[in-house]
Specification:
The structure is a single chain. This protein is an alpha+beta fold. Helices cover 50% and strands 22% of the residues. The chain is built from 6 helices and 5 strands, in the order H-E-H-H-E-E-H-H-H-E-E. The chain has helices at residues 3-22, 35-52, 56-76, 115-127, 130-143, 154-163; strands at residues 25-31, 91-97, 101-111, 168-173, 178-188. A 5-stranded antiparallel β-sheet has the order 1-2-3-5-4. The longest helix is centred in the middle third of the chain and has 21 residues, at 56-76. The model is unreliable at 146-150 (pLDDT under 50).
Length: 191
């Protein structure tokens, strides 16, 4: 890195830090999501929450949502069989903490062909109340309609049940074949 690039990079790092502070982001990671990474994140978050004296029920919900979200990335992050593709087999994971709630945000690349099905699943989950979610979960478990990548929306249903909130999601276009799928789950700190 030459001297001009170093200055630009340092400014980028500082701006990124300021942006993280402004958005109350306490943890951010970009890369391959593995079982070891999931374990490391949960223990990091656990020690942070213990310091903040967060209630046990809030801690459990945050952990549960984190694990579900991370599993969703590792199940659904498309690799497109290309090592040099910018986002191949990777994802982004963030935890932010506000005055009254936590936000767990994940992002990963998906093929355009999966958007319709994913939208249908997420929109359906967002129309259901607590009892509806419970029924849907039981139905999915009973019918066992599993894709080659895992449960048919079970993780999403579980997150909605645990948080009692709607799932907030967006698809941002990358190119003609892919979108970046961003999912944010919200956990209330006031139990």
């Amino acid at each position: 890195m030459d001297k001009r690039n170093v200055k630009g990079f340092l400014e980028f790092v500082y701006d990124f830090y300021k942006s993280m502070k402004a958005h109350e982001i306490t943890l951010v990671y970009e890369g391959e999501i593995t079982h070891q990474i999931t374990k490391a994140f949960t223990s990091l978050t656990e020690s942070n929450m213990a310091k903040e004296e967060e209630s046990n029920s809030v801690q459990k919900k945050v952990f549960h949502v984190m694990v579900e979200c991370l599993q969703n990335i590792s199940k659904h992050a498309d690799s497109f069989g290309s090592d040099d593709f910018l986002f191949a087999g990777r994802g982004i994971f963030m935890v932010s903490k506000g005055e009254i709630e936590y936000h767990v945000t994940t992002g990963n690349v998906i093929e355009n062909s999966k958007i319709d099905e994913l939208t249908k699943i997420l929109d359906h989950i967002n129309t259901l109340d607590k009892d509806g979610l419970k029924e849907l979960y039981k139905t999915q478990m009973r019918e066992g309609r599993l894709s080659e990548k895992g449960g048919a929306g079970l993780g999403f249903i579980d997150i909605a049940r645990k948080t009692g909130r709607k799932l907030d999601y967006h698809f941002l276009p990358i190119d003609e074949e892919t979108h970046f799928f961003i999912l944010t789950s919200t956990i209330s700190r006031n139990e």
